[in-house]
Amino acid sequence: MRHGLNTREGLAGSSSSIRRLIPATLIKEYFFCPRIPYIVMNSSHVQEEFHFMERGKEVERDLAKKAIEKLNAQIIAEKIEGTHEELGIYGVIDYVIRKENALHVLELKNTSYKETFLGHRFQAVAYVLIARRCGYPVRSAIIYYGESETIVEILPTWENIRTLLSVINAINRFLKVGMPRIKSSRCGVCSYRHICLEI
Question: Which of 58, 105, 126, 162 could form a disulfide with 141 if both were Cys (CB 3.0 to 4.6 A apart)?
C-alpha cells in the first residue's frame, strides 16, 4: 500500500527549497550523532572518504545467501541507485526481493540485532520510499542481521514516515544554520571526533 506524503506537514519547505540531496545512510548516522551529517555534507574531504567507504562496503555474498535462504525469497534487483527528489534524499538499495506474493527492500547488516538501532529502522523506511519512487511497489523493508541471524521487518507506517520527515527536517535545518552544539557519550568512539573538535 502506498502512503501519500503531505510535504506541508513535516518536510522543511517544498522541493524547490532543497538545495542538496542527502544520502539516506546519513539518516542512520544522525541517530548516532546529529553532528555527523553536518560534518559529512560540509567537508569535501570527509564527504569523499564517506562515499568511498560506502562504495567499498560490499555486501558479503554468503550473508545475502543466508538471508535469502532464511526468508525463502527471490532476488528481483540489487544495488539500486535511486533518489526521492521530494524528500531530498538518495541512496543505494542492497536488494529488492520477492517473498511469497510481495516485494520488499532487503537490507543486510553484518552485526547483531539490538532494539536500540533506531537509525537502521528509519534508514530502511527511506529505502522503501526510494524504491517505490524507482518503480518497485515494495510493501516493507526487511533487515537481516547476520551475526545474530535476526530478521526484522520495518513497515512504512505513517508514524515511521513522520519520524523520517522530522529527521530530514533536522538535518536540513542544521545544514542551513550550522552544526548543533551537542556533546555525546559516544564522542570517544566516533571516527569523526578529531574533525568535529576542529569545527
Answer: 105
